[in-house]
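Revision sheet: structure tokens.
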Amino acid sequence: MTSTECTLVILKPDALERGLVGEIIQRFERVGLEIVGIREILPDKELCRAHYEGIGGLATRLGEKVYRQVEKYLTRGPVIPIIFEGVDAVSEVRKMIGPTEPKSALPGTIRGDYAHMSYEYANANNIAIENLVHASGSSEEAEQEIKLWFGDVLGTEPAL
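Predicted:
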């Protein structure tokens, strides 16, 4: 069943550093997704842990070393979390951004068009894979992530 829903997209530090914010946002708007929340924030380690481990279970799944790399990457500069609303927003955004590894992302996806890093390169250099954006993986995850990143604005807490 098709439905209107909200999802969270986070433009990561590399998207801001490379001046891709407007282009990336424009791509989501052009398919009919509407921005219903946007802010710029410098995430601290507590917010990063709440997001990537508390909701995503990253350290549990891939180990503390990988988690620390992601934490260093996400906290190195400001990020822009955005709430998009639209028909099947979660799956539409996931389709548009492409897979986590930019090197394997197809042209036409955000990661395929604007990033190229491979897992091999990231692992060899002991860094997180720079892939420009995060997107919620499910409606349930989107709900949790929106509360975490916008809860203080929505009156439901977090944004630690």
